[in-house]
Design goal:
about 170 residues; alpha/beta; Uracil-DNA Glycosylase, subunit E; five-stranded mixed β-sheet; 5 strands; Uracil-DNA_glycosylase-like
Length: about 170
């Protein structure tokens, strides 16, 4: 997958649904014009400056932030993904998290976490009480897609909890 950035020893793996067509074409994560991902990282304190999508590979070396998705196939919208793609993606993502053992798995959207864990009820923003993979903390964050009806300030507030924990792990 062209947008995937993984290695062992990561601090965070950001897990999305799948690459958007724009991200896939450009080869960079969260590359859509209206996606707030990099602004949210910056304003929440997860990065010291505002990165552009083209610089996303640098987050691997600069911060230990990696990227993957539950499904590899690019689409215009996540609702184009099939149940069989999710079933296969759950197994592959479980293997990746087990293999790479990031300190934190950040699910970029409640739907991503729900598809991975099959937990549909009672999922709240932030760190989850139980982790799927031993020694990997699960953090559920809002999607940063421009389609999300949450304000930037609301998104930043949630991601700030992740930033605060990251500061204690460094």
């Amino acid at each position: 997958m062209i947008t995937e950035r993984l290695r062992t020893g990561l601090l965070i793996i950001f897990v999305g649904f799948n690459p958007s067509l724009t991200s896939y074409e450009r080869g960079f994560n969260y590359a859509g014009r209206n996606n707030r991902f990099y602004r949210v990282l910056y304003e929440s304190g997860l990065t010291e400056r505002l990165y552009a999508p083209e610089e996303s590979p640098n987050l691997l070396s600069d911060y230990g932030y990696g990227f993957t998705n539950i499904v590899a196939r690019p689409t215009a919208r996540a609702d184009e993904l099939t149940s069989s793609e999710y079933a296969e993606g759950r197994m592959i993502l479980h293997e990746k998290l087990t293999r790479y053992q990031p300190r934190i798995a950040c699910y970029v959207g409640k739907g991503v976490y729900a598809e991975f864990t099959r937990r549909r009820q009672g999922v709240l923003w932030g760190f989850q009480a139980e982790s799927v993979i031993d020694n990997v903390l699960d953090f559920v964050a809002p999607s940063t897609s421009g389609l999300v009806r949450m304000t930037l300030a609301e998104q930043v507030d949630i991601y700030r909890h992740l930033s605060d924990r990251v500061a204690t792990l460094k």
